[in-house]
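Why should sequence recovery work at all? Because a backbone constrains its sequence more than one might expect. Tight turns favour small or flexible residues, buried strands favour hydrophobic ones, and helices have their own preferences. The token representation captures these environments compactly. In the example below, the structure is given first.
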């Protein structure tokens, strides 16, 4: 089949690579316009565009998906559209442009976590598992019938970054299986239970502020769920500290105000939480500095025991 691929970030790269290795032809890539990236905010190619250029594929980067593009997409003669983290809502006219419509790789076990940040929300909420769903794209957000699903457990200390990386590979393999079924004319579609749907809204920087009055596991889940962006943070002595990695401490029955440092050493910086337990901060980043271990941070900041975070 002739396939048009819609995708932008690193999550979409395994799916594109899997399609390129299949027996089908990727006739064009549609990706977000270039924008500043990284610490220097230099304009650079997003991961999907970089792979497309490397393979010599036509790349389309429309600012808006207006009806004026109808002829351009129609000229591609696509049998199928495949979407993986494109980053824009597809208009209804575009959904029917490919002969067999469009399908999407979504990083959750639908109908749970429709929306922009399904992996991060699953980790923040402490879910024991997540997965990937291949679904048909319809006008309503992530509401189309499901064509295949695969489950992945979430380890208690795993970050969103790790889970999303694995789901990208899992989704790529599953997508190719679905494309083969569609090509053979025996794809199966199962309607979602809209009554069981939940929403995973886009992350904001403000969500990173840690509340140590919450239970230790809640704090820990927020730290790992917001990795790699927007990251969790707190304040110490009026200065912002980004918390990159932690764990729930083995200490129990801690008699200290939430946010109080109750220990600091090679095992990490232990901060009391609201349920009588604590979190151990393992990797952190002071303002204007690189990420470092708790041990390295302590080497330059003296005694922290008794200090308040927050």
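From this structural description, the recovered sequence reads:
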């Amino acid at each position: 089949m002739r396939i048009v691929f819609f995708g932008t970030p690193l999550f979409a790269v395994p799916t594109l690579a899997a399609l390129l290795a299949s027996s089908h032809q990727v006739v064009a890539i549609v990706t977000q316009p270039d924008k500043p990236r990284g610490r220097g905010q230099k304009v650079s190619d997003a991961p999907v565009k970089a792979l497309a250029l490397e393979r010599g594929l036509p790349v389309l980067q429309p600012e808006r998906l207006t009806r004026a593009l109808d002829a351009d997409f129609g000229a591609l003669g696509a049998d199928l559209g495949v979407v993986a983290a494109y980053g824009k809502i597809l208009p209804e006219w575009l959904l029917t442009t490919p002969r067999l419509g469009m399908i999407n790789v979504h990083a959750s076990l639908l109908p749970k976590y429709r929306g922009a940040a399904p992996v991060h929300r699953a980790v923040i909420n402490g879910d024991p598992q997540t997965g990937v769903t291949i679904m048909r794209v319809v006008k309503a957000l992530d509401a189309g019938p499901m064509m295949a699903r695969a489950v992945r457990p979430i380890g208690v200390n795993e970050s969103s970054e790790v889970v999303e990386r694995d789901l990208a590979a899992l989704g790529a393999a599953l997508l190719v299986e679905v494309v083969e079924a569609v090509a053979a004319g025996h794809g199966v579609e199962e309607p979602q239970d809209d009554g069981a749907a939940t929403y995973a809204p886009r992350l904001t920087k403000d969500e990173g502020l840690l509340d140590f009055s919450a239970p230790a596991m809640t704090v820990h889940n927020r730290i790992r769920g917001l990795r790699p962006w927007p990251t969790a943070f707190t304040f110490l002595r009026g200065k912002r500290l980004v918390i990159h990695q932690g764990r729930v401490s083995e200490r129990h029955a801690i008699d200290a105000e939430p946010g109080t440092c109750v220990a600091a050493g090679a095992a990490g910086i232990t901060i009391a939480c609201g349920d009588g337990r604590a979190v151990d901060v393992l990797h952190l980043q002071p303002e204007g500095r690189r990420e470092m271990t708790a041990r390295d941070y302590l080497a330059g900041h003296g005694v922290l025991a008794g200090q308040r975070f927050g």
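A few observations help interpret the result. The first strand starts at residue 2 and ends at 7.
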